[in-house]
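User: Predict structure, ligand CDM.
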Amino acid sequence: MATSLDWWPSPAKLNLFLHINARLNNGYHALQSVFQLLDFGDKLAFEVNTSSRISMKTPIAGVKDVDNLIFRAAKALQEASNTDLGCDIYLEKVLPMGGGIGGGSSNAATTLVALNHLWQCHLSIDELADIGLSLGADVPIFVRGHSAFAEGVGEQITPLNLANKYYLVVFPGCHVSTGEIFTHPNLPRNTPKIRLQDYEFSETHNDCQKIVCERYPKVANLLHWLLEYAPSRMTGTGACLFSVFDTKSEAERVLSQLPEECTGFVAQGVNRSPLYAKLDEI
Ligand SMILES: C[C@](O)(CO)[C@H](O)COP(=O)(O)OP(=O)(O)OC[C@H]1O[C@@H](n2ccc(N)nc2=O)[C@H](O)[C@@H]1O
Ligand SMILES: Nc1ncnc2c1ncn2[C@@H]1O[C@H](COP(=O)(O)OP(=O)(O)OP(=O)(O)O)[C@@H](O)[C@H]1O
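Assistant: Predicted complex:
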């Protein structure tokens, strides 16, 4: 690995709630959610070359480079901007994959925003968000870089300023496929829409949680355990769960007592993505 890489943050998100309002004709679902960005995540570094070659220097085990959302994001930007430039890409992965905390989507968004700057493509945020949406429903949120209320398939976004709570995020040790949950016949699909101004954590829920708990006892047991300590819920389509705390020390105390088969981290909720704090520094 090169000696002094310039790292770009790729933060995790939590879905503080997830209501499914309808099934759309294209198989996707109309949903409502609050996306809370966290001050914790993966890191990516890019070394620009003039050969137009895009190369993953730190491949992800089990994910072919052509399927890696980072590679796909770089390729999509190369095509959209007509640049002749390429890059070598390094990834420091800490977020569990398939955990509902948006690691892959965030990696794609960081790649779009960083390479737009490094390749000097001058695409607007709207253009980057459109490219992002073609890669995954959650990518636009990370491109726009603000905690938000989301509707539609996740692309209709209203930025939000949320209280900067501390979150204990726990990975129960099993992966849940998003497709598996969204195609389940018993998934609730007609939760009435709420108005943003009526949002309160305690008045909302995650429509995917019951099915995931039924199919994955590890998730159900862990949720039961966490609820003894703090308000707790599943994020996205799982498998990660989170608990909400007012102080870092309370969250860290519960982290230190986690059952053995789980891993977790404590992070603070942030309104603005660390990705944009990095852009500001440049
Ligand atoms: C539900 C969330 O986890 C909330 O953060 C995300 O919106 C899912 O986002 P994602 O993992 O980026 O999902 P995608 O890769 O776009 O879609 C994976 C699969 O999930 C289902 N899917 C996803 C998003 C959505 N609004 N409706 C769906 O039905 C579709 O079957 C799709 O084939
Ligand atoms: N750079 C990447 N990082 C993580 N996963 C990737 C990446 N590229 C492709 N993938 C694939 O995407 C799948 C989902 O990964 P991701 O970490 O985004 O899931 P998630 O946390 O459940 O996301 P979401 O909350 O958006 O559903 C992985 O199992 C993996 O096969």
